[in-house]
Automatic annotation (TrEMBL):
<keyword id="KW-0812">Transmembrane</keyword>
<feature type="compositionally biased region" description="Polar residues">
    <location>
        <begin position="376"/>
        <end position="392"/>
    </location>
</feature>
<keyword id="KW-0472">Membrane</keyword>
<feature type="region of interest" description="Disordered">
    <location>
        <begin position="416"/>
        <end position="450"/>
    </location>
</feature>
<dbReference type="Pfam" id="PF05212">
    <property type="entry name" value="DUF707"/>
</dbReference>
<feature type="region of interest" description="Disordered">
    <location>
        <begin position="90"/>
        <end position="117"/>
    </location>
</feature>
<feature type="transmembrane region" description="Helical">
    <location>
        <begin position="37"/>
        <end position="60"/>
    </location>
</feature>
<dbReference type="InterPro" id="IPR007877">
    <property type="entry name" value="DUF707"/>
</dbReference>
<feature type="region of interest" description="Disordered">
    <location>
        <begin position="363"/>
        <end position="399"/>
    </location>
</feature>
<keyword id="KW-1133">Transmembrane helix</keyword>
<protein>
    <submittedName>
        <fullName>Uncharacterized protein</fullName>
    </submittedName>
</protein>
Amino acid sequence: MGTISASRPKSNLIQARPCRLISTVERKSGETKWRKVFRPSFLACTGIFIGFVFFCNLVVNEPYTYTGPWNVSALMDSIKPAAYSNCTCAPPEDSDRRNRSQVQCPKPAKRPGTETLPQGIVEATTDLELRHLWKRKAKEPVGPQNLLAMAVGLKQKKTVDKIIQKFPAENFTFMLFHYDGKVDGWMDLKWGPQAIHVIAANQTKWWFAKRFLHPDVVAKYNYIFLWDEDLGVEHFHVNRYLGIMQDEGLEISQPALDSKLSEVHHRLTVRQPKVRVHKRLMTGAGSVKSCDNSSTGPPCTGWVEMMAPVFSRAAWRCTWHLIQNDLVHAWGLDFKLGYCAQGVRSEKVGIIDSEYIIHEGIPSLGGESKDKTAKTDSGNSTTLLEGSTTDSEAVDERTEIRLRSKAELHDFSRRWKRAAGSDPDWRDPYEVTIPPEDDHDATGNRVRRR
Ligand SMILES: *[C@@H]1O[C@H](CO)[C@@H](O)[C@H](O)[C@H]1NC(C)=O
Ligand SMILES: *[C@@H]1O[C@H](CO)[C@@H](O)[C@H](O)[C@H]1NC(C)=O
Ligand SMILES: *[C@@H]1O[C@H](CO)[C@@H](O)[C@H](O)[C@H]1NC(C)=O
Ligand SMILES: *[C@@H]1O[C@H](CO)[C@@H](O)[C@H](O)[C@H]1NC(C)=O
Ligand SMILES: *[C@@H]1O[C@H](CO)[C@@H](O)[C@H](O)[C@H]1NC(C)=O
Ligand SMILES: *[C@@H]1O[C@H](CO)[C@@H](O)[C@H](O)[C@H]1NC(C)=O
Ligand SMILES: *[C@@H]1O[C@H](CO)[C@@H](O)[C@H](O)[C@H]1NC(C)=O
């Protein structure tokens, strides 16, 4: 079946509108009610409920017809704690709901903080739409709504403008994170005043995403593009891209990188010109790191790079929880994205080859590369900024950032290991071994070709 959520059962975030499931469970006194709220089976059912809500969303919002050959149920059975198995979230309408011999999901918990409110007034999620001060919106927007969020600096104005031009405003909300604090320079662009602008000096895309793209804030958007600013999009068409993502049942994807013109870090993401989508890398026999059609995880399959990921709503809800507040470079996160894939990662995560991009590889936040003049925009907005850092300062900063990123990769791996070891309810559906550090180099080194 379509999408199964792997949401952690502990989440209490309930988004109740699209499918109301269980309405009558006998009322209990306050104390027992609270014990009930914290019962593991209840939490587990809450997880299922959230999953079901997403499932309903998908079914309602878009025809989700993919029926692939993989066996998601086998995987999900292995993830689910035993308590899940007998919990039926959708009892037949005519069944006696108080028949306690059948295990049912209890009534969803009230969101913490809303206990004193009539539940019908609770707005659990929001969006990033601008509202007119006095006019009511004539009608809701037509197409499905998606979000494009990018961390940008004014130096990349032309490139960013080209990217945003590729996304129809009718179907997209734009959110720009300005790490250089210069927001005025964007207002002369056609879409500038329509975008949401957030300023926080010298922060990374992941810092912004963690703070401003909470799943309840972006719950409206079917797909979330969390992109870098140094991408060439001449060969990218977003409607076709999303069509392919749906056809292929992808929950996390990225456009392939043109191999000739891009700065390439990982071979998995290099464009394979003859196919529409690829989900795994095949290396020749004899490689030390050999990837073939039996590989089940990174670096061969089941992940995308951090420069241009696209998430489905459900995958983003999971991914957001994976981002660590303090690990702002997010190194190592990409290799774990498969756990948010809403199914088997080698099937639900993919690289779309027919709509591909060029990764220009301009280090922007935190100093500039030596060849900046060749690549950055010319023009007055740029000259304002130039001279703020000398080359050697910039190089120093890049080195520091790189060291910091590597340290973060260490921390992240350690936290993951610790969490995996200390959660008795969690089983690794992939049983992967954590890759050695030097395999993973998110911002600088070209991939070692053999
Ligand atoms: C998928 O896995 C489940 C549980 O292991 C099994 O019952 C079912 O037959 C499998 N389906 C296919 C198509 O392999
Ligand atoms: C689920 O139901 C089966 C029989 O229908 C039973 O054997 C099993 O113990 C139940 N599991 C739980 C967790 O209640
Ligand atoms: C309750 O469920 C049991 C077993 O599923 C069934 O035998 C019984 O008839 C049900 N009772 C009612 C009132 O539906
Ligand atoms: C918006 O999305 C819908 C559905 O995917 C599509 O038919 C429509 O062409 C899109 N609008 C634009 C301007 O591309
Ligand atoms: C941001 O980084 C630049 C370059 O390192 C530095 O000059 C500037 O002072 C920083 N701004 C803040 C607010 O930290
Ligand atoms: C793996 O790929 C090889 C060559 O492409 C093919 O011959 C083989 O059947 C594949 N094996 C599986 C299990 O798909
Ligand atoms: C920069 O601004 C000056 C005047 O302020 C103008 O004459 C010049 O053409 C501008 N240069 C570019 C590249 O826009």
